[in-house]
């Protein structure tokens, strides 16, 4: 078991675009709080959730490196940073991984060179939201049925102006999955792994699951093989930027690729 903990962002009422979270003092506080909450002495990986536009990445990673030297985490990682920040951060201290939203509906990591950056630096890329926040899972909840704390109610891709187009993409992908005797979720989990192999990078999908059934279904995706021809066909039918709507509300898009 690998225990990977993220720092989150300060809950201080600041606007999304300025919430920060890269101050070494804040990173230390959240790391130590994670250790206390988990009842352990050392994390395997401690990950900074977002690059802070007000703190040089070298300063943030330098603070995280101190946590490694003190034995509070074995490795450190970043999330949603630019390829340039990844390079600058790695020059300060070795990184274990980069966490990015990456799926059949979100391919920013290809266009913004994060995958290439991970390959060049020898890092793994952890692909989160591989099921498109549920858009690519077995059951898609209706927006009007989402609870007040469901983040998807805020996401543009679930808004009526974009949802119809995205559901058409989902339907096409479901047909591809059926032709391969797989579920849509299994196709969606296998795809980033296959993309990593094609690019010469190591991509680890981290799908969510709320039941044992879904865990078992997700694990079987590791046995699902997508050939180079399969990937080329998917690219043809569902090219990058095919999804309608940004992956976060516009006010939050300023916090990624920094």
What does this structure look like?
42% of the residues lie in helices and 12% in strands. The protein is of the alpha/beta class. The protein has one domain (4-253): TIM Barrel. It has a six-stranded parallel beta sheet. Strand 3, helix 3 (83-92) and strand 4 (97-101) form a beta-alpha-beta unit.
Counting H and I runs of at least 4 residues, what is the number of helices? Answer: 10
Oligomer classification: single chain
CATH class assignment: Alpha Beta
Give the radius of gyration: 19 Å
| Largest sheet descriptor | 6 strands, parallel
Helical content class:
40-55%
CATH superfamily: NADP-dependent oxidoreductase domain
Order of strands across the widest beta sheet? 1-2-3-4-5-6
What distance lies between the first and last C-alpha atoms, to the nearest angstrom? 31 Å
At the fold tier of CATH, the topology name is TIM Barrel
Domain count, please report it: 1
Summarize the structure.
By secondary structure, this protein is of the alpha/beta class. The protein contains 10 helices and 6 strands; from the N terminus they run E-H-E-H-E-H-E-H-H-E-H-H-E-H-H-H. It has a 6-stranded parallel β-sheet with strand order 1-2-3-4-5-6.
